[in-house]
Amino acid sequence: GENVEQHPSTLSVQEGDSAVIKCTYSDSASNYFPWYKQELGKGPQLIIDIRSNVGEKKDQRIAVTLNKTAKHFSLHITETQPEDSAVYFCAASKGNQGGKLIFGQGTELSVKP
Amino acid sequence: GAGVSQTPSNKVTEKGKYVELRCDPISGHTALYWYRQSLGQGPEFLIYFQGTGAADDSGLPNDRFFAVRPEGSVSTLKIQRTERGDSAVYLCASSFGGVNGYTFGSGTRLTVV
C-alpha cells in the first residue's frame, strides 16, 4: 500500500526565516496531496493542497511544490511567525479510494521570536 | 453545526471495558472517516463510510473495533475489550465525497488504564 515519509521530524527557525518540510510517497497512483497544521488538542486543519496535474501552488506565505517523477512534494513557509509553530503533516490520496488519506509522521515546527 | 463534533473529548476506561466514541459530521457531508493518532505520529486510517455503508474498513486493526452509521449522519466507533495499546486520539472527518470539503473534528482522547 501507499507509504508517506516526512522529514525533518523537528524544525526550529528564527522568526522571519523560511521553513521547508519534505515528503515522499510510494504509490505513483496518488494524485492529491494536502498539508495539515495541527495545534495541541485540536484536529488537523488543512492549510494548502495540490493535485497531481499541478507543479506548484501558492497561498500568501505558504507554497507547495510537487515533483511527480521523483514522487516527492514539499511545503514552504516564508516569513515565519511564532503563530506558525505547530505540528505539520503531509498526506497523499488516490482518487479511486474515496478520500482515504495516508499521512506522514509529522514535523514539529518551532518559530523562535 | 459549523464543524465536525466529537464526543466525548476525553475518555478514560479500564482495560477490558467497552467504549463508544461519537462523531457528528458537518450537515450535508455524505462521507465520514475515522482515524487513530498515537502520540507523536500521523493519523492512521481506520474506516470510511459513504452514506450508511462502510466503503473501506481496511484500517480497522482487529475485530474488537467496529463502526456504524445507521442513518448516514452520526457515526459511532465501538471498541470491545479495550487494551492499553488502544490508547490514542481518535479523529473523525467528514466530506461532501472524496476530498471535497474534508474537515476533521478535534478528536476523542481515549486512555485505557
Question: Which descriptors would you attach to this protein?
Answer:
heterodimer; A: 113 residues; mainly beta; six-stranded mixed sheet; five-stranded antiparallel sheet; 54% strand; B: 113 residues; four-stranded antiparallel sheet; 11 strands; 0% helix
| Count of distinct strands of chain B | 11
Q: Kindly report how far apart the N and C termini of chain B lie.
A: 33 Å
Alpha carbon gap, first and last residue of chain A: 41 Å
Question: Which class best fits the helix and strand makeup of chain A?
Answer: mainly beta
Helix share bin of chain A:
under 10%
Computed over alpha carbons, the radius of gyration of chain A is 14 Å
Basic shape of chain B:
globular
Average pLDDT reading of chain A: 95
Greatest interface: A-B, 26 and 26 residues
Strand percentage of chain A lies at: over 45%
- Class from secondary-structure proportions of chain B: mainly beta
Helix content of chain B: under 10%
The backbone outline of chain A, from C-alpha atoms, is globular
Beta-strand segment tally of chain A: 11
Mean of all residue-level pLDDT scores of chain B: 96
Beta-strand level of the residues of chain B, as a percent range?
over 45%
Give a short synopsis of this structure.
The complex is a heterodimer of chains A (about 110) and B (about 110). Chain A has about 110 residues and is mainly β. Chain A contains no helices and eleven strands.
Topology, element by element:
The complex is a heterodimer of chains A (113) and B (113).
Chain A: E1 4-7, E2 10-14, E3 19-25, E4 32-38, E5 45-51, E6 56-59, E7 62-67, E8 72-77, E9 86-92, E10 102-103, E11 107-112
Parallel strand pairs in A: 2-11
Antiparallel strand pairs in A: 1-3, 3-8, 4-5, 4-9, 6-7, 7-8, 9-10, 9-11
Chain B: E1 5-7, E2 10-13, E3 19-24, E4 31-37, E5 44-50, E6 53-56, E7 65-68, E8 75-79, E9 88-95, E10 103-104, E11 108-112
Parallel strand pairs in B: 2-11
Antiparallel strand pairs in B: 1-3, 3-8, 4-5, 4-9, 5-6, 7-8, 9-10, 9-11
